[in-house]
From TrEMBL:
The protein's name in its UniProt record: gamma-glutamyl-gamma-aminobutyrate hydrolase
GO CC annotations, alphabetized: cytosol
Gene3D superfamilies: 3.40.50.880
Protein family: Belongs to the peptidase C26 family.
Lineage, highest ranks first: Bacteria, Pseudomonadati, Pseudomonadota, Alphaproteobacteria, Rhodospirillales
EC number annotated for this UniProt entry: 3.5.1.94
Keywords carried by this UniProt record: Hydrolase
SUPFAM superfamilies in UniProt: Class I glutamine amidotransferase-like
Molecular function GO labels: gamma-glutamyl-gamma-aminobutyrate hydrolase activity
Pfam families registered for this protein in UniProt: Peptidase_C26 (PF07722)
Enzyme class: hydrolase
GO terms of biological process kind: polyamine catabolic process
Keyword Nucleotide-binding: no
Organism: Nisaea acidiphila
């Protein structure tokens, strides 16, 4: 007799990297380890394979959640009709080819989605929005990029405050309307996608969180890195816990146990 799974299966997106001999699929361990705790799920790494090598419909049918990770690479600008990137900008066309349609399919299927850093940018582009490619070139914003002149842990230090939309999803999760967050990004959201709602902004107006209230399930993207440092505390922990709760609800519904206790 098959046992009923008690933990939701949560897909974690990986990046493709060319090697001298073999290509690799890479995902920072910090994104994988935040799935068992505090999210409360089983992680499944989703490789950034060439188009047609992954049956995304079958994948979505087995997932209870989708975690879109951060990355040194940026979404290729042709996906949002942006100008060509500055020379030297890192891109990952295989990841774009997997994540952008996967996001749309997951949301349509009612699979909970949480996007982090590059992940929020992918979400916005997948839903028809656009991106600023180089925030640090603006005269009226501060530099949101990762500090490279400090030790590792200080790169993830609280960098600025965010102000959350009153009554929004993030404010309800946080139980407040302000929080201090880290900042390690060069790109940011320009125009929100279709049915995308801004959930938080930085003091300089840069979008720090988005949601999609019209979606069938939990959809949230944050521009900072809630997965680090450890232990995950405060608003960051609350985000993963809310995501996990939505993933468990999806698991119960997928198994026909929607009315069963967790």
């Amino acid at each position: 007799m098959l046992s009923v799974p008690s933990l939701p299966l949560i897909g974690v997106t990986a990046c493709h990297q060319e090697g001298e001999d073999h290509s690799t699929q890479r995902v920072s361990e910090k994104y994988v380890t935040c799935v068992p705790e505090p999210t409360g799920g089983l992680p499944l790494i989703i490789p950034a394979l060439e188009e047609g090598q992954l049956d995304l419909d079958s994948l979505v049918a087995h997932l209870d959640g989708l975690l879109l990770t951060g990355s040194p690479s940026n979404v290729e600008p042709h996906h949002f009709n942006g100008p060509e990137s500055v020379e030297g900008t890192q891109h990952d066309p295989r990841r774009d080819g997997v994540t952008l349609p996967l996001i749309r399919k997951a949301i349509e299927a009612g699979v909970p989605v949480l996007g982090i850093c590059r992940g929020i940018q992918e979400m916005n582009v997948a839903l028809g929005g656009t991106l600023h490619q180089r925030i640090f070139d603006f005269d009226d914003t501060f530099d949101h990029r990762m500090r490279r002149d400090v030790e590792f842990d200080r790169k993830y230090r609280p960098a600025h405050e965010i102000r959350m939309t009153s009554g929004g999803l993030l404010a309800r999760i946080a139980g407040s309307e302000t929080a201090l967050v880290n900042s390690l990004h060069a790109q940011g959201i320009d125009k929100p996608g279709e049915n995308v709602v801004v959930e938080a902004v930085a003091p300089d107006g840069i979008v720090e969180a988005i949601s999609m209230p019209s979606a069938k399930a939990f959809v949230l993207g944050v521009q900072w890195h809630p997965e680090w440092p450890r232990p995950i505390e405060g608003i960051n922990r609350k985000i993963f816990e809310a995501f996990g709760e939505a993933c468990r609800a999806h698991l119960r519904a997928r198994l026909g146990l929607a009315d069963a206790a967790e």
